[in-house]
Amino acid sequence: MAGWRWWRRDAPLLSVTADTGSGPVVVMIHGIASSSVTFVHLVPLLEADHRVITIDILGFGASPSPEGATYTLDEHAAALDRTIRSLGLRAPFTLVGHSLGSLIAARYASTHRRALNRLVLVSSPIYLPPAVLGDPLDRASMGAYFTVYEFLRSNPVFTQRTAAALAAVAPIKNVLELTEKNWQPFMLSLQNAIESQTTLADLARVAVPVDLVYGALDPFLAPGGLTIVQQLRHVRTHRVPGVAHLVRPKLAQAVARVLREPPAALD
Prior knowledge:
Residues 24-246 form the AB hydrolase-1 domain. With 267 residues, this protein is an alpha/beta fold. It has helices at residues 2-10, 43-46, 73-87, 100-111, 136-154, 156-169, 183-194, 199-205, 223-229, 249-260; strands spanning 16-20, 25-29, 51-55, 93-98, 116-122, 210-215, 235-240. The protein has one domain: Rossmann fold (3-Layer(aba) Sandwich), CATH 3.40.50. Helix content is 42%, strand content 15%. The chain has a seven-stranded mixed sheet. Helix 3 (73-87) crosses helix 4 and helix 5 (136-154) packs antiparallel against helix 7 (183-194).
């Protein structure tokens, strides 16, 4: 608890990597082992009629990696909160999160109800303990994610080499970066934010419309988690055929369309 009190009082400022365009404000945060380059195909689709702000999350891209950080969702969200407050935004805005960024965005939205007018989650890895799932296939699938993530955390050399190989063939340049420099933020964010998440509970507390946009071929999408999210009355889901996890042009176009649609009405 002492560490969390410190973060509440003095969370670090994150790097605001872009602030472009004018109009309704859209703030974007990326996922694990990445940076704001995640949104290279999305920002140009919006900046003509939106003010688009991209922010690197704690420990990644150009943002700091503070000594003693444990990279829980609370710490990520506290740093995001301080950074957003530093921008002096005067009206509610839309928050877009990709991958781990979507989990951070859900935590922020659950505790800052007046700050947002909309929450958009993209490629969200929404997991929950396998034991709570009734369907045996969903339970086995969910368990497999945790097994793989534990292996990745426990084998840094393998994980970094694999990430480097994937980055070399990734369709978006520099979208994946995992080195010794950001290994600690990666490993702890994986363990303390993705694996230990309570995103379903966070979404249940969100007081604004939520859109979840995902690719039909996304390997990080857990069917059991998606099924439960779809039952939340204030959440709309948008399945994009033929795309996977990264925000490539087709997924970027789908997200831009969602952002231009009227949000779902709250009951």
